[in-house]
Design a protein that fits this description.
The protein is α/β, with parallel strands linked by helices. 54% of the residues lie in helices and 8% in strands. It has one domain. Helix 6 packs across helix 11. The longest helix is centred in the C-terminal third of the chain and has 27 residues.
Length: 303
Amino acid sequence: MKISRSNLVRSILLLSSFMVVAACGVTPVQSQQSESGALVSNSRQSESFSAARLAGLSDDELELRSDPACGLADVRFEGVIVEVIDKFNEFVARSAEGVLDHIPLAGHPDAPEDGDGPGISALVCDDSLISAYAYNRTVVVSEGLLAVLWQAAWASALYSDDPEALDMALDDIVYYALTDSSDDLITKEDIDGLSKSGDFSRIAGDLFSSAVAFVIYHELGHSYMGHALSVADGGAPEDSTHEIEADIFAASSIKRAGLSIDGADLVFSILDRINPEGSFGHPSSLKRASVVERVAHAAPPDQ
């Protein structure tokens, strides 16, 4: 039975935020975007990131990195996370000096050395929350978010020719996740059966990879642009420009990595079911999706 959005909102306590910028650091940093979607670093951005490196890890980051519940992703997700991070590092490494200057490399779960110092660690924490957030040199994605995107990607493959059935399926997936239900709309047995069809497996796999890339690149954007730093220094955590900047960074990075942007739509579709109006500095999913759409259809950025 289809769960209406109004009933869903009334029956559960909605998460107040989807991609939270965690506090840790020094000063706010502004990013610039060319009309082509290319990210252009400026001196203030580079100086802030260099200062952040010298400052070392925050107590929160140290605690996360030593938490046994945070580290490698579940075997279902680990390969995809490693792949999207490898693609990120590849385009950063081949990018022309001055275009993507000072973007650090990333690693899962350990931060790599990128020549100038430690890179950024991408951790997966074993909890059921639908969340992702960024610190100075650490980004975190929850197992709960990955599980929802995994289910949603397979539902999208299964109901690709039936928009109404897909809409109902996504409603159910979010409902089960937010009520911490042990039920899965699409079970492991279902997925094992669907995997025998190359089309289902390819569609679901590509969509999931794209969605995971958008989430991780978004959080890497927060780290790179110093957004996590600004909160601890008195910056406004509700600054919606930070989310738009991180979305632009993610969309532009996905293009450079040669991945599909389709996963961003899946992320916003899930977000729209959690809180369509946005919250705590997060603009509405509609506004964010329109920004990503413009970047996706802009001329290819310089490599």
